Amino acid sequence: MKPIALQLYTLREACAEDFAGTLKKVAEIGYKGVEFAGLHGMEPREVKAIVDDLGLSVCSSHVPVFRTENLEELIEQEKTLGNTRLVGGFGRDTFNTADDCKRAAERLAEVSAKLNEAGMTLGYHNHWWEFQPVEGVVPHEVLMSAAPEVFPQLDVYWVAFGGADPVETVRKYRERACLLHIKDGTLKEGEPHTAVGAGVLDMPAIIGAADPNVLEWLIVELDHCATDMEEAVRESYRYLTESGLAEGNK
Fold it and tell me: What is the mean pLDDT of residues 68-85?
């Protein structure tokens, strides 16, 4: 089993109100790690002290890594947090044409090279649009081919929503996929996500398709839920740990 982390975007409203208190709650539920999505006005050194005190690991950070003006600042921030994995993504309008896909891939490779020089690695987080063909090419395949050193942070729900098979996709990138975003739902247009295990995705098969020698973290992320978000975070933790799919602290 791999350790379980929470993408803090899931609890973004609670984090905005009380970041330190929310981190404490995540640790109390039993999550072993967190993936940051902003620091909510706190200094990196303050956040580092809190997560260390709570016994949480920083598995990665989702940051605006593809902006041209802020990369050095992000690198310094993540060094302070003790994190070496930076994750980003491109918006839907990035992939309107095959040439757009090529330009995005060039940017991906460029940023990856700069992070590698700083001793860090770049991950690409997908949504559904990267798996929908554009002028005969699949954007995600173009991106992954252009930068083999980039790890795909596969969001398994969006893979499925985009029309691809999440089991086969995880298997395809099993030699590179060190982090998986675990998300669940109905796969119906416009419907919110569910707690992991309450949706339609076959999580045992999806997680089982990963290479256990490469996969390091399972990261729960829910964008929107019809139920209380904190309860969905608890239910996701309970399902993954009690099903023997992930390891927590409780």
Answer: 92
